[in-house]
Amino acid sequence: MEILFPSNIKCISCKEPIPKSNPYSLCKSCFHKIEFINDNCTRCGRKIDSHFDCLCEEDDHIFDSIYVCTRYEGLMENMIWKLKYQSSTYIAKHFAKIMSHKMDYEGLNPDILIPVPSSASRMKKRGYNQSKLLAQFLGKERNIEVIEPLRRKKDTKPLSSLGVIERRLEIKEAFFIDSKYENQDFKYKNILIIDDILTTGTTIDEMTRILKEWKKDINVSALVLSSGRI
Ligand SMILES: [Zn+2]
Ligand SMILES: [Zn+2]
């Protein structure tokens, strides 16, 4: 009896049939269109060039360190758009594998994952929060709990369209600690914030500020799927 390619699946980007063993369920051609970032500056997220130091001393961040998996352009930009706006939520599972490999590479071992929260109105419109999906798949993959102690107060304008000062003003007070968590026993020391796209780091900074005001002696780092800041 003929078996109809039981081990073949489709590339998550171009839908070409591929062997099941392909990394991140991508065909070879699509895989090579992604710029994976192995070493990044943990202060600003920019890719490190082995010959030059990163010139980001003037970047004043509150988070302890940041890790970036891929460059936000071309195929990655397109797939993240599908994940965010076309309900292609299955992509999150494969993206979480990319993030998991970065955790291995960097030796990250957080106690807890916290996704960047969506506002209530965005959740209503979209029905899901892509950063939460990434965190959930990653948490499952690595057996780490995902919690959401932060909530978003207001819709913020797209930060990438604003200057540094406007960005800080726009995001300030955008988050607060959910009353469910306020008096809860919180035993976690190493927190990893999960986000899909890094633009300026302002959102992660503001989340870190609120978390560190809430709990002393915590380490807050971030793992971001893709960055335009390179
Ligand atoms: Zn493909
Ligand atoms: Zn840097």
TrEMBL record:
Name the record gives this protein: Competence protein ComFC
Pfam families named among the record's database cross-references: DZR_2, Pribosyltran
Protein's organism: Acetoanaerobium pronyense
Domain of life (superkingdom): Bacteria
InterPro entries according to UniProt: ComF/GntX_DNA_util-trans, DZR_2, PRTase-like, PRTase_dom
Listed PANTHER family: DNA UTILIZATION PROTEIN YHGH (PTHR47505)
Domain Phosphoribosyltransferase: 93-213
Double zinc ribbon domain segment(s): 2-51
High-level lineage: Bacteria, Bacillati, Bacillota, Clostridia, Peptostreptococcales
Family affiliation: Belongs to the ComF/GntX family.
